[in-house]
């Protein structure tokens, strides 16, 4: 396993590709080789077996031919014995003897057994007359003609059918027969003739035949020598054969699978063919035997060939073995390929898994490095307990979760306590003032008590399937310092249904907020007096005008103040003292103002006060009280005090006016009247009703 894992992936892939093919080819070659060897051995065995079988059957067939011929010769010897025991064998005796032999039953294939009597020319006529007297008036020696010796067939059993044609036929006349008879006479042995055509065959059909003849000598005289045998010869017992009848049934089963050809003599020639069991040359067959057998002084050449059916059964075995071996070889090769392939697949899967693991580890390491060293504060959190709590019956059926949580701050606090801080990177720990110890961190370092509403909004968003949620809030550092922050919650892909992996980025925005506040302050505050500046006051005036549009029963007034003879103070005491006077007046204004009132410095030595819910009369009272206090409160400076008075113009805001400018214009007009009226006084728009005058 380790070897596989330590292997380079490319090498492993090549091995996996080659391995199954090489192994299966190896198995295939080995099995085919084994099959070839087994087939070769089986074929050789089959060949040996078939050759042995053939040799056995062929020898058996040769033996059967020889044995049958010997049997027939024995029969002839029996007939010869009949003559030896009697000086004269008459026709009835001859017939009786052969009928006892039951030739048709015991000696199939024999055409008959007969007797040829040797008749010199001088005795021919007496012979013919004698036979005619036996009841054959038409008897004659055939063919006719004058010859020295005749050997007519006198007896022939069975004496019927085609055998009748041979009755009287002169065997001495025809050379083949004569040579056979002479040889039998001279040797005293059974003699087999050359191939001949039997006299019985009168139908013109060419059938190979032969004779076997045995000499019959004069019983009274010795016939030990050749001369004596020639002197004492009386006739021949003989048997004519049709070769095909002789061979019929001789081979039995073998005949069907063996082709047998028999030739007369030593040569294999068509003219000398005596028997041909099947068409075609036996010598041309794959398996053949060439033998010569000698029967009764005659040589036959025997050709035996194995017919097409001979090898079939034995030849099937190697073929079946070969096919089975080939099929088994391919089967084993396929099986090997499948096994090797699955093993290679498993190895490839293992390597792939290793690769993925390495990639995952590298990815995790990169993520860990990025996470740890990111300049952004990152928190790894587990919100699964919150997720589980949301599924609880108490919250599961709630239609409006946001509203539900808003009304139950204690539940929100409980949920917040269930968020688990899994980790915090360096920036996060630094932000929370935790140093290297992250164990003390809690959700308060993300959402403090004041920020729990923001936490509740986050809970609602995540519960509704949001993957990203951003908000502002506040947190406490571990040293107790309260800070403001900006949070972004990201539910990691694949963890939406468990919320067990949430990455939170936090940004400490306390400084930014402070600077923003300062900028706002700068933009809205008069730097010298600390009162709202002109822009801020106008915005407030606009809001109040809008409020009056909505609230028809309400009212509002505006006081416009201007320091009297301020130029003189500046000129007399210096600009810095002038500034101090301005701050002094602003402080007096602030000191007595109501919370709902808005004070402002429009510019220079000119101030305004917006009095919501105050009509002209009430505004007049307030203005007069202010004027008096300013007039009664000089500014103490080094070396004395500086008296300060203000003139005040009052105007009421009117709902009918389109904008807020009108009230300022009218207040300014009233102020102008107050200046013109001698300063240090209060005038209302149309100011006659109040008729207030300077009290100093
Ligand atoms: N020290 C100081 N002086 C200012 C400031 N703004 C405007 N002034 C001065 O205020 C003076 C205003 O003078 P005027 O417009 O003539 O008004 P006044 O002298 O008060 O006369 P009346 O308004 O008619 O009573 C000028 O001398 C300006 O320079 C400021 O912020 N600080």
UniProtKB/TrEMBL annotation:
Main location: membrane
PROSITE patterns: CHASE, GGDEF
Membrane-spanning residues: 320-340
EC number: 2.7.7.65
Coiled-coil region list: none
Domain CHASE: 85-303
InterPro entries recorded: CHASE_dom (IPR006189), CHASE_sf (IPR042240), Diguanylate_Cyclase (IPR050469), GGDEF_dom (IPR000160), Nucleotide_cyclase (IPR029787), PAS-like_dom_sf (IPR035965), Rev_trsase/Diguanyl_cyclase (IPR043128)
Domain of life: Bacteria
Name listed for the protein in its UniProt record: diguanylate cyclase
């Amino acid at each position: 396993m380790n070897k596989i894992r330590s292997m380079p992936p490319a090498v492993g892939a090549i091995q996996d590709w080659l391995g199954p093919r090489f192994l299966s080819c190896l198995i295939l070659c080995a099995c085919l080789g084994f099959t070839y060897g087994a087939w070769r051995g089986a074929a050789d065995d089959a060949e040996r077996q078939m050759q042995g079988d053939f040799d056995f059957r062929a020898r058996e067939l040769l033996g059967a031919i020889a044995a049958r011929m010997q049997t027939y010769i024995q029969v002839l010897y029996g007939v010869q014995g009949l003559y030896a025991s009697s000086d004269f064998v008459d026709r009835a005796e001859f017939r009786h003897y052969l009928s006892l032999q039951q030739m048709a039953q015991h000696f199939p294939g024999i055409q008959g057994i007969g007797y040829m009597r040797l008749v010199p020319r001088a005795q021919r006529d007496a012979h013919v007359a004698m036979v005619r007297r036996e009841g054959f008036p038409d008897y004659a020696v055939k063919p006719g003609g004058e010859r020295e010796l005749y050997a007519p067939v006198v007896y022939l059993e069975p004496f019927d059918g085609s055998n009748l044609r041979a009755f009287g036929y002169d065997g001495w006349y025809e050379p083949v027969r004569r040579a056979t008879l002479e040889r039998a006479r001279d040797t005293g042995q059974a003699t087999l003739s050359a191939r001949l055509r039997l006299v019985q065959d009168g139908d013109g059909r060419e059938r190979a035949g032969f004779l076997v003849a045995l000499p019959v000598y004069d019983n009274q005289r010795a016939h030990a020598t050749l001369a004596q045998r020639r002197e004492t010869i009386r006739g021949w017992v003989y048997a004519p054969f049709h070769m095909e009848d002789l061979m019929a049934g001789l081979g039995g089963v073998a005949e069907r699978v063996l082709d047998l050809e028999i030739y007369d003599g030593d040569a294999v020639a068509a003219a000398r063919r005596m028997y041909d069991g099947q068409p075609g040359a036996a010598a041309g067959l794959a398996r053949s035997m060439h033998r010569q057998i000698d029967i009764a002084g005659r040589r036959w050449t025997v050709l035996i060939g194995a017919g097409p059916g001979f090898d079939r059964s034995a030849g099937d075995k190697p073929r079946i073995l070969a096919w089975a071996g080939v099929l088994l070889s391919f089967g084993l090769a396929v099986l090997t390929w499948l096994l090797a392939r699955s093993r290679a697949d498993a190895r490839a899967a293992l390597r792939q898994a290793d690769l993925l693991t390495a990639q995952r580890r590298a990815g995790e390491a990169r993520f860990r490095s990025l996470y740890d060293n990111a300049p952004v504060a990152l928190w790894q959190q587990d919100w699964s307990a919150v997720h589980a709590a949301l599924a609880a019956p108490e919250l599961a059926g709630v239609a409006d979760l946001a509203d539900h949580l808003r009304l139950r701050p204690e539940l929100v606090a409980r949920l917040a306590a269930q968020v688990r801080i899994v980790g915090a990177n360096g920036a996060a720990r630094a932000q929370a003032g935790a140093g290297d110890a992250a164990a003390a961190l809690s959700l308060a370092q993300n959402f403090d008590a004041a920020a729990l509403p923001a936490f509740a909004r986050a809970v609602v968003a995540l519960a509704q399937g949001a993957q990203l949620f951003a908000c502002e809030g506040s947190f406490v550092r571990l040293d107790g310092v309260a800070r403001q922050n900006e949070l972004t919650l990201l539910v990691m892909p694949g963890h939406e249904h468990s919320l067990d992996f949430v990455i939170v980025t936090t940004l400490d925005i306390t400084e930014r907020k402070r600077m923003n506040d300062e900028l706002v302050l700068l933009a809205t505050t008069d730097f010298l007096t600390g009162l709202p500046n002109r822009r801020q006051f106008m915005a407030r005036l606009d809001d109040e005008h809008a409020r009056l549009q909505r609230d028809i029963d309400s009212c509002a007034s505006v006081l416009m103040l201007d320091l009297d003879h301020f130029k003189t103070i500046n000129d007399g005491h210096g600009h810095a003292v002038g500034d101090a006077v301005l701050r002094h007046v602003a402080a007096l204004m602030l000191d007595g103002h109501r919370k709902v009132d808005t004070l402002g410095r429009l510019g220079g030595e000119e101030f305004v006060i917006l009095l919501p819910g105050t009509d002209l009369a009430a505004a007049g009272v307030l203005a007069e009280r202010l004027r008096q206090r300013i007039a009664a409160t000089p500014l103490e400076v080094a070396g004395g005090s500086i008296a300060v008075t203000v003139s005040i113009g009052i105007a009421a805001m009117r709902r009918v006016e389109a904008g807020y400018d009108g009230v300022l214009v009218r207040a300014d007009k009233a102020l102008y009247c107050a200046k013109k009226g001698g300063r240090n006084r209060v005038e209302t728009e149309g100011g006659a009703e109040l008729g207030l005058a300077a009290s100093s």
